[in-house]
Amino acid sequence: MKDLLLLARTTWAGLRLLLAATLVLGLLYPLAITGIAQVAAPWRSEGSLLTAEGEHTTDPELAVGSELVGQGTTDPAQFQPRPSAAGEGWDTLSTYGSNLGPESPDLVAAIEERRAEVAEREGVDPGDVPPDAVTASASGLDPDISPAYAALQVPRVARETGLSEDRVRELVAEHTDGRTLGVLGEPRVHVLPLNLALDRALAAAQAGSPDAG
Question: How would you summarize the oligomeric state and partners of this protein (predicted)?
Fold first, then answer.
């Protein structure tokens, strides 16, 4: 009987701890962090959405995409993102990598096919194609590309838009971030904001604006 009472008390203590932890860590803490984020950084807390003008917005109706999520494009006048293995490509409901190992024949074949496509599209030798142009990220939704891949695309984008290569390089530089804290990660180019800036520069050029560059 004593053993049963001890078991009951121990079980009840464990259940109370579980309920308290669930309440604090599963409800109160997330609500508190969400509330702080809504006040301190409303744009980021709502998904880092951007309008066509490249402005921050918290209204999904005005958004053309998120700065945090890669988007596919077939427009030759825009910068292309990394390949995506998420669903049929850049699918936010099926975000994942290919899970293929470096010695997988399927991965090797896919890389070689992508390398040939990029080389033909950009008019360069296949050996000049950077790794991020032919490999999908772990999420399949990587929003950034390397400066090398962006530089590779500059001549094609300039040709298709009619902007000068120098102007396109300026836009790339404006949307390039260095290593986080100067030491973490690699420099990266934000594709969506860059393409939006490119659209605005092209519109300004067509309108004859002196700000077009």
Answer: The system is composed of three essential subunits: KdpA, KdpB and KdpC.
